[in-house]
Target: Acetyl-CoA hydrolase/transferase family protein
Amino acid sequence: MTGRIRNRQFASKIVSAEEAAEMIEPGENVGMSGFTGAGYPKEVPGALAKRVATSHEQGRPMKVGLWTGASTAPELDGALAEVEGIYLRLPYQSDPVSRAKINAGRLDYTDIHLSHVAQRVWQGIYGELDLAVVEVSGITSDGHLIPSSSVGNNKTWLEQADRVILEVNSWQSEHLDGMHDIYYGTALPPHRKPIPITHPADRIGVPHLECPAEKVIAVVETESPDRNAAFTPPDRTSEQIAGHVLGFLESEVRNGRLPRELLPLQSGVGNVANAVLAGLGAGPFDGLTAYTEVIQDGMLQLIESGKLQMASATAFSLSPTAVDRFNRDTAAYRDKIVLRPQEISNHPEVVRRLGCLAMNGIVEADIYGNINSTHLMGSRVQNGIGGSGDFARNAYVSIFVTPSQAKNGDVSAIVPMVSHVDHTEHDVDVVVTEQGLADLRGLSPKKRAERIIDRCAHPDFRPLLHDYFQRAQHSSFGLHTPHLLDESLSWHHRFVQHGSMRG
Ligand code: 0RQ
Model:
């Protein structure tokens, strides 16, 4: 057989996306592939959304539980959220339509550390996984599945689902074959063994996913591209943030706390994180490595410039122009990139062992160093915690980056008390804004507050924060972490009431 489906048994199951969508029953839990716009199924979700819409028009409710690796794209999250075809979404999303539905209270969402998803599914916490819909880039003659541009939770979905629909995507480069490392050694306690990764380049598994042909109920062919948003080119603010991070890393090397080639980098999603990577390209470091979850444009550029020796991740998150570059010459990146299941790419044990340098974007930080990564004004979810907690808690140095203001200056990213906590003060080593960098390691809460206000707050908000902190030190219930409880969230309240945190 030729083409991407080289196994007769699998080839005999080829159907249209519409026929495959008919095989999904209302109320089922469906595990779909996809991680930050890479490797999600392109055809079946749209066909399912049409079926849901028709079903709703006929007065027959139809919703499914939708589990993925992380965020996907409008054709999946957007299409199914639009027709209100999801009863529970997990573990991470960033789609504007599903975000709006979640925040309007019309879609239930549970936001989970990305490394925890597989074990929770194995435990049965979310019920049975009825069906998996997984994109692959090919099927070998002996019936193994060649993963595509993300691995995410696909291993778990294929193992746990009763039935499987495969999408074979010939848009994905054939040269992805060999780039993946699928580890089949995970188990639930008390049977766990150490994950034997001691360097980001280590390969501990096999290149292909396994799935018994009997489980596969349909195979759908597609040649649709991954859809990732383009990054905005680094602006002045993100360049300043990147500059502070670089300066910090250089001083850590000078002080003998980091080796010259640094330690494996983890970089989160978003424009600021991408700008920090661009900054590293211009910096003095060579022989870098990354143990991270997504490979975005900045990281690809670091590989191309020879600064980054190799990167381990679970997915790509590339802009359309970077994808074109990558697909034209995939083979050239093969020995520099390893894609793993997300329970391994984000594994706390490995992150701790390797000593990752974690850099993640945030919504807001408070004066004591607690971080909100997910909720605007404490109640409106933006994306989700993603892998930031997997890395921050276990990193060698945990860095959080943000512009000091949001919403055209109406919002301070440094507040008296965060309106939602994702990362506690104990997991936060360094906070960086365009104003400066606060190294919080070794400081008591009050010293942290002084440093964050002085180094990170925008000058317009700095006097207000000083005023709050001074008064809190006079009348707080306790003076270890002084707060004025009737005022600590008043900045957020002011924004909700009047559209600005400014007085
Ligand atoms: O809203 O788009 O309506 O203008 O939040 O903010 O400035 O574009 O920031 O792209 O760097 O993302 C935290 C969301 C930052 C991201 C977050 C509003 C702002 C804008 C986005 P608009 P920016 P970025 C590994 C790591 C959690 C997951 C994670 C994130 C929108 O970094 O999702 O770290 N992190 N994963 O206006 C009100 C504030 C605000 C605010 C920003 N203080 N108050 N609105 N905004 N700060 C990767 C994975 O896990 C997959």
Q: What stands out?
A: The chain has a mean pLDDT of 96. Residues 36, 70, 92, 114, 268-272, 293-294, 360-364, 373, 376, 382-383, 385-388, 406-407, 411, 413 surround 0RQ (CB under 6 Å). The domain at 236-498 is CATH 3.40.1080.10 (Glutaconate Coenzyme A-transferase). The chain has two domains: 8-222, 236-498.
